[in-house]
Amino acid sequence: MIEVNLLPEELRNRVVKPVKPAVSGNLLKPGPQLFILSIPLIFALLITVHIFIGLAGIIRSARLNLLRGKWEKVALQRKALEDFNAEHALVSGDAQAIQRLTLERVGWSEKLYKLSLSLPAGVWFELVSVSGKDFYLRGKAVTVDKTEVSLIRNFVDEIKNQPQFMKNFNSLELSSIQKGVIGAYEVADFSLIGSLK
Which residues on neighbouring strands pair with residue 124, listed in sequence order? Predict the structure, then answer.
């Protein structure tokens, strides 16, 4: 091979050395080397993200189990509270019914006591009966001077004028008086009929 130099003489003897850049041109250009270097970085990033998501899932699972345990305890307490409220409602309903009955009840012992205090000499009871709202009293009266009818009327008027006795009655009336004889004495049979409120 023959080399011919066509440069003038003064320039022929000089040898020009090529200038190398400070950074290799291959690194500046995207290519297979840059891709290969970024693969471990991408894998490290993916592994870090997966570890973070896994830890977050474990923490959330632990919190969920803790909340489930609390929910079960609260559910048991809520069930106990519902049972108590149901029982309380029954007892409260019974208590209200008893209170209502207590307010509506008729104090018969007090009424019989008032009747016995008002009972004049010569008058006695044979029957005192209450059925539902119906009151019935049957008695007899005897006097030496034969004034049984006025004695019975005075007795009925006296008990009708007692507000404590009459407070539970709508009405109380003398229904009948019949005269009869027991031995040598004249006796008057009487009946009182009343209706309760």
Answer: 140
